[in-house]
Amino acid sequence: MASTEEIRTGLAEIVNEITGVPAGDVQLDKSFTDDLDIDSLSMVEVVVAAEEKFGVKIPDEEVKNLATVGDAVSYIEKAGS
Amino acid sequence: MRTQIRPARQPRAARITGIGGYRPSRVIPNSEIVERIDSSDEWIRTRSGIESRRWATDDETVISMSLGAAGKAIAHAGVHPDQIGCVIVSTVTHLYQTPSAAAEIAYKLGTDRAAAFDISAACAGFCYGLSLASDMVQTGTAEHVLVIGVERLSDLTDPTDRSTAFLFADGAGAVVVGPADDAEGAGIGPVVWGSDGESLGHIHQRENWYDALHSPDGPRMPHLVMQGNPVFRWASYEMPKVAQQALEAAGITVDDLDLFVPHQANMRITDAMARQLKLPDHVAIARDIAQQGNSSAASIPLAIERMLESGEARSGDLALVIGFGAGLVYAAQVIRIP
Fold first, then answer.
1. Looking at residue A1, what is its pLDDT?
2. Are B137 and B129 contacting, i.e. CB atoms less than 8 angstroms apart?
3. Nearest to B122 by CA among B331, B332, B328, B325
4. B138 phi and psi, to 5 degrees?
5. How many angstroms separate the CA atoms of B110 and B132, rounded?
6. Per the domain annotation, does B2 fall within a domain?
7. Chain A touched by B47 (CB under 8 Å)
8. What ipTM goes with this model?
9. Which of the listed residues B162, B185, B208 is the one where a domain comes to its end?
10. Fewer beta carbons below 10 Å: N end or C end of chain B?
């Protein structure tokens, strides 16, 4: 199972590819909307790419609870364990 | 021995012979929408790619817009209205349960008592109608079939709904489908279509007419509502698979395509689909939504007409078309531009 840091790095690559936000900005305490300026449609694309990369399912109703990068990383950690 | 009945004629190839659109006269910029949804021009542009949309006046009815589009398509096809054997109208905004819009249109166009009926397949309606028309021409049920996609979505749009008020628009698009000279002239590939009723609630009319008219707060229009994110996900990731199957069914690849004309739902969906399909740079992508908005069943023929007018599309080009919407329902084909 990937470590927290490996998941964060993987997620940062996805966010960078989809939105152009520098991967280095994608830190655990950052809010997707307020800090990284990622809108809801881009968030859907990030979620779909993360599902593929980490082999997990992130249901639509769960996505709105993933406010920060840290929330997403812990969800992926739990879902993958 | 049982008495035999004569079967339908041997299949022949069908093609689109003419296309035409009608854009209603009211041009509604984002600035006229934003106040009631507490939004901004920039928000609408980045979420949807829409700069302005077309809305109909009271005089631009489902029937009148259809007649405008159909007249152009029939003239382009070079046929006379009395050669049209069937009229298929796809719409969800003809606000009469009966009779059909198609019967009235068939009469007003001057067809010779053409068969006529409406279908309900929302934003997939044009591709559904095209599939029916193609089958009819192939089997000889009709010689020339008129397919119209027409909507006045503005009638069923809640102007205060942040998910739909900026999206929905009005308009009509039509094609004539007729026989090809030979199999090589086939201009409509096999349809790949289906439905996913499990997601019925993703896009739907909020209440039926009876409940809307008997609301305790007084009669009101039953508006259309949509869950944007699940629809975006379905359209952006599931629909490219359907589009890919339509290419395979037609025996071609993305490299053979000239045009990609998805239902003009949202520019972000179009972009995501194009990325998933890995379209080569030479494929022109329909982006009519920027000036037209989402006009449901009318959007594909309207987008093709714009591409023909701008020179992005030429007669003989191969286009991948895909419609998808409330149901959920979807349909995709490869077509040759008339």
1. 61
2. no
3. B325
4. -60, -35
5. 22
6. no
7. yes
8. 0.84
9. B185
10. N
